Amino acid sequence: MNPSDSLHRFYSGFVDKYDLFASWEERKRREGRFFRQILQSNGVESVIDCFCGTGFHVAMLSEMGYHVDGIDISPHMIRKAKENLKDMGLDDRVRVGDVKELVAGEKYDCALSMGNSLPHEFGDENVLKALEGMYGALKYGGIVIIHMENFDRLYEDKERFIPSVYRRTGDGTEAFIFAIDYYEDRVVFNILSLIERGGKPGFEVDVVEYNPINVESLKRLLKEAGFSGLALYEDFMMRPLGRDGTYDLIVVARKRQVSDKRKQLYFLEDAKG
Ligand SMILES: C[S@@+](CC[C@H](N)C(=O)[O-])C[C@H]1O[C@@H](n2cnc3c(N)ncnc32)[C@H](O)[C@@H]1O
Fold it and tell me: What is the CATH code of the structural domain delimited by 3-151+212-272?
């Protein structure tokens, strides 16, 4: 099966569990302060979420006052995002789209790849195309924020089972456990979910493959795409990467300002018509 078929198959099965697995309230508590700080200190007004999933960042950042658009390659995730965003009047801000095919509009101050999205791309060529898509969407001076697993750390420990969520609410119980298979060129997350409603347990397994992009490759590809000024963190508290050795990796990088020399060149070219 090619990677894009397996991606569509995974999200068609997982879409209705996704927001249980990653509850919006918990995510707001975890990520809110980070975004306020980074976006304010970089003078951001507009954001494109290039892997918007079920719409969490579109909603949270719109609530904070930013203009946010979202694209996602999965029609299932976009259907869910529209449902989630309807009451906020934001459902027309999201559409189906592939980040690798984004038209370079240079419209946004910030581009996002959150929630381990970039590692859905396999091969340096595709990762680079995705980064170039985000680069093209940004104005000069704009920033990209990438949040993903720290695969260097995961491969150091090669933990087979990672309990991810256990939650009891008025509706029932939700538990998610990751069983991970580590290979040289891919890592397979088998997600076991146990969702109990009205005393009836439902047990399912969903399987998703990722490209275990290591930190050095990501840094190299970001630079190749044109980004500079990389800052690397290990959590949303903005602790520098490597301090406590978490399994999270967050990178913030900038699309270089056009130099005055290049601006002049553009000006001369325009003048020539
Ligand atoms: C793990 S989800 C994360 C969603 C969201 N960013 C979040 O944090 O909740 C990854 C998403 O990336 C999307 N995706 C994968 N490849 C993509 C591509 N080439 N272009 C746009 N979206 C893509 C998937 O469909 C999926 O919705």
Answer: 3.40.50.150
